[in-house]
Amino acid sequence: MTQDIDHSYYKELIDLQDAEGVEAQFSSLLEVPIESISDLEKWLKDEKDLMIKIQEAMTGHQVDFYRNTEDADIKSIYLHDQQVIQPIIMKYEAKLNEKCCKSPYINQLDENRYGLMRRFRESKIKLFREENIPLMVKEQELCTKYSEIMGGLTVEWEGEEKPYPSIQSKLDLLDRGVREKAYHAMMSAHRAIKPEIDTIMDELVQLRHQIALNAGFENYRDYMFVAKNREYSVQDCYDFHENVEKHIVPAWNRLADVFKSKLGVDTYRPWDNTAKLLTNPPYSEESTLLDGVSEMLRKTDPYFGECFDHMGEHGLLDLGDRKGKGPGAFCTFLPVSGDTFVFANFSPSFDSLSALIHEMGHAVNAYLQFSEHGPFEEYQLRMEVAELYSFGMELLLLDKLDRFYPEKEDFKSVQREELRWAFSMLLKPLTGDLFQHWMYTNPAHTAKERDVKFFEISKRYGLNPVDTSGFEEEVGMSWADTIHYFHFPFYTIDYGIAMLGALQILENYRENPDQAVESFKKGASADCNQSIAAIYKETGVSFDFSEQAVKRMGEFLEKVIQDTH
Fold this sequence. Notes:
Elements: H1 19-31, H2 37-67, H3 72-101, H4 111-127, H5 133-151, E1 154-157, E2 160-163, H6 164-168, H7 176-214, H8 220-227, H9 234-247, H10 249-263, H11 286-300, H12 302-313, E3 317-318, E4 329-334, E5 339-344, H13 350-373, H14 383-396, H15 408-441, H16 447-460, H17 472-477, H18 484-487, H19 493-511, H20 513-524, H21 532-538, H22 547-563
Parallel strand pairs: 3-5
Antiparallel strand pairs: 1-2, 4-5
Helix pairs in contact: 1-3, 2-3, 3-4, 3-5, 5-7, 7-8, 9-15, 9-22, 11-12, 12-13, 13-14, 14-19, 15-16, 15-19, 19-20, 19-22, 20-21
């Protein structure tokens, strides 16, 4: 039996099942004469109106699929979008970009308002190759297959099949025996699907490499730097990797010693690196989670709480775990409705609480953008900016976690957990980024080599203090649990960069809470056509991941940790 899903949270103002009708609307845009700067601006508005209608419908269908990956009708609609509508979009997007960029009036557009849009379109033109369209459709099919596999993943536990997240949450528990048992059970479940996952990733690497070659690049990594319009270089990324290894990993190891001591273990094993020094999960019923997060947000700023309550009242939250639900957590945007939707697949745990607060940072950012500037477009969603406000929200609520952990020692423990999370968001993303640099610059690698490389990189960063002896295979294959490598290649470094900025938000908050919150809101509502550095500046922080900046934030983290002892 499939769950009855409420679809009323999004608007379908265009019939995507009518592919010919969709194509006709694109075609009519191409025929519009542009004979003045005002014609061009009106044409851009009409194009945007069409694209946001399509975006909202496709987003709604995608969320429906994630909410129930086992429903055949929902899957069919989602796959139609990917296999039929997406190729039409890619085909006409290229033609529309050319029409815009070849217009004699393009240089008369206001640079502050349209400059980022122009650069984005120029990059798209540079990258577009018609022969890549079927490759990109296949890429989406493979990603969908991955989500189906992970959505249906169960773990055998005490003679029963349990949803994967429900067993994953047991890694939080103080009982070491339960943690170890859960770790083994999860690895057993992963081992069963690993051949399928390897095949998917093998195909993705080859597809993406061919996409890059077709577009004139040596590898997919270099292709993606242009596709993402990054405001920093490949070398900057490598420098960031080294700076974190030099200045954050030693501090991480000292924090690991604290946890090791408090856990009372002689060796720090993989299932110890997840343990939370908390007596109970923060909630048992979803209503308790909703009430508590609402209160925490309101205490930080009334507007934050209003956004959350609005989402709860309008069916824009789907939290908790169930079989057939897609993996992970995300916040997505509905540009026609001017709303956001938060999806999460977690059992009661600290991680589920933290993830919800994180996604609400994205949601507040989106609502402020909708309020100040109206619907925004793909090119304006730079992840280094988006993640600044999600991590920033987590750290702004750090001092309010006593809402779920009122006992003094539990409150200190959960604050340390949030800080451990901050450390991990400087370490895991760089593990993932370096891993992807290697994968896509070595596209002929084997599945075994991929696992070995992931283990090697993991030991340099987040697993540096962990005794992994005897579990090299398990650690090596654990990359398969990360959705970003499949759906969002070369996303993860954005987390690390944004976390450096978010730690500055926390530093500002500790000095002047009211001013830090106002700066957060100012930055989150700032014109996203600006440079990343300019938006960070409006938020009261610096867009800087140099060695000096990394070292300073490492020292700040250690100071905050000392304050929680």
